[in-house]
Amino acid sequence: xxxxxxxxxxxxxxxxxxxxxxxxYDSRWCGLRKDWIRLxxxxxxxxxxxxxxxxxxxxxxxxxxxxxxLWQYRYxxxxxxxxxxxxxxxxGEAPEAAAARELAEEAGCVARELVRLPGFYPINGxxxxxxxAFVALGCTPNDGARPxxxxxxxxxxxxxxxxxxxxxxxxxxxxxxxLALLYYFAGAHARP
Length: 192
Known about the structure:
CATH class of the largest domain: Alpha Beta
């Protein structure tokens, strides 16, 4: 154990050497590759890396502090649950533009201001996939949500205390949503 000043992080570890890489699978949604790496003790091993485009997640907040939550169906586990707007960043698209697009498409809102929240790696043990998080302040409804054909979404305007309670009770199971809401409620968007 090393004695570090309180609040500081230790020096980063030295990366492993990648010896080779093999494409296993590619589609427009994701990819999988197998890398061969050399560990610091000289041993070699394979490491599978899941590839998916970076994403955005947006907490939509109305002028009065209410939050837009989405009741959304997810095919992969067959359940409906609470989320905030999120989606992949298109090639060449800026994260802010993707956030505004997802906000309009999924929540049917436009924001007065987009403010960055801390981003995160949602599955960093298997993927370099990164989520850019935002809070959309001063949201107003636009011409309505335009979900994709495979999306089933119901937008619900909720008081902030209701969203906090849902989060506290574990009713928000989506990791993107839970972490973005926790950052928002912790004031991570506030300027000094």
